[in-house]
Give the backbone structure.
Amino acid sequence: MNAPDTNFKNDINTIILNLMKLLPKKKDAKLYKDDKFVRHMSGIHSEAKSVFPLCFSGLRLGAQSEFGTVKLVQNYRFGSDRQFESITRLLQKEVAPKRVDDGLVLDLTRSAVATYTKKVNNGHVRFISTLSDLTASENEMVVERRNESYMSLTSFSIKNGNFANLRILTQYMYRLLPVLCVGGEFAFSPFGENSPKISFGYRYDLPSMAISGTISQLGLQICFFNELSKELRVATVATQTLRGTVLSLALHKVRADSDLKVFVDSRCCVGATFEKNLLFEEATATRLIKMRASSLVDKRGRIHFGLGFDLDF
């Protein structure tokens, strides 16, 4: 091999190494200590519904950076970008609270969210302020208390600074038995025309299995979750609403550097997502890119594909 060829290969290797240094370093996952407190009413179905994939279409690129208590998020979407919910939600507040540190999250394409938490006695008060598209805003105050016997949560939210949009929501869960919890949710708008929303729920826990249910004005839902092994989880959700009955099955396969979710339901919908951690080893650090692929066949027989990449600096 002559000298020009060797120099050319060295230059290519140098360029590749410099590009790899622009990729984010692999971070250690944040570990939170699990407690024995009663879980939130909003999270009674969390394990079962987390098995189902969140399918999307189009091309996505996401990047986030942390600067102390400020997190900068950038999301770019190309093509026909859509997101598909495979499971119906019957509760007014059915999103399991995420363990997010206080601070400011800036999304350059959508919104800004500021969070502040104050501990009070055996509970805490959380203030959340959201600004969307520089035109719409929402301010929320959440008062929560949890222990080994019960959980209570009260939320006051106002949209666009107009008290006519005031919304009050309360949730309560009580542990009847070591493996059985029951609770309810009540939501209403004091100055609104909509009628109050009332829901009831239960959850039965075993070491690797959970059965939970919800009944509300929107319908009835029963969820079954089973962790067959550390790498394999399955879930079944049956939902009865005015639109009919839907039975959904899902499987979640977990590996050290990949994640596969597949679901099918009685409407002939079939979907799957695949996540892969692409690691690039260096002498001093490990670089990481998260790749996500999605496919879905909806109830009308239309096929949707999606591909995404996430960078966490």
Remarks:
- Residues 39-312 form a domain with the Porin fold (CATH 2.40.160.10).
